[in-house]
Amino acid sequence: MPIFRAREDLRNAQRHDPAARGGFEMAVAYSGLHAVWAYRVAHRMWCAGLRTPARFLSQFARFLTGIEIHPGARIGRRFFIDHGMGVVIGETTWIGDDVMLYHGVTLGGRGSGHGKRHPTVHDGVVVGAGAKVLGAITIGEHSVIGANAVVTHDAPPYSLLVGVPAHPRPRSGHEQIPGDTYLDPALYI
């Protein structure tokens, strides 16, 4: 992992977490960062054909952090997991840049077939605590998924998804704009 990427991750964590106090504390105490860093190493191993060692590393990271990221998933830059316990990211998940997940989020599959069976989450999406995004669906850029929502259908860009099952609706003008320093999906329940 290039050092600039670690610094970028630390700056990103500080931007998303108002409680962040400094780079050293975040590097040592933020399980979301540890899980992402371990994922990056495991993903390189996975892509190099070292599938079993990659799975061992991802399971060890899961043991340490409580966050399970399959090494086959594709994750973009500036990905942040806040209070990550219980996060699960499946093998065929694609995550764009500047995506944020809260604790208890599942980006999971539906069915047991081969091929793409996990979600594609585009750039700038925020996923609230406990939300479940299931199946080979697409979540459009800059969407917000509310806490505990269950999403099983595609959502266009700039959607707000709440409820069980979640139904997308356009975000209204009074809601925060993507790129704000703190976007809280719990406000949209």
Descriptive report:
With 189 residues, the chain is α/β, with parallel strands linked by helices. 28% of the residues lie in helices and 20% in strands. The protein has four helices and 15 strands. The chain has helices at 3-16, 23-29, 31-47, 51-65; strands spanning 68-69, 74-75, 80-81, 88-89, 94-95, 100-101, 106-108, 120-121, 126-127, 132-134, 138-139, 144-145, 150-151, 159-163, 166-170. The strands form three sheets. The protein has a six-stranded mixed β-sheet. A five-stranded parallel β-sheet has the order 1-4-7-10-13. The longest helix has 17 residues, at 31-47.
Write the layout of secondary structure elements.
Elements: H1 3-16, H2 23-29, H3 31-47, H4 51-65, E1 68-69, E2 74-75, E3 80-81, E4 88-89, E5 94-95, E6 100-101, E7 106-108, E8 120-121, E9 126-127, E10 132-134, E11 138-139, E12 144-145, E13 150-151, E14 159-163, E15 166-170
Parallel strand pairs: 1-4, 2-5, 3-6, 4-7, 5-8, 6-9, 7-10, 8-11, 9-12, 10-13, 12-14
Antiparallel strand pairs: 14-15
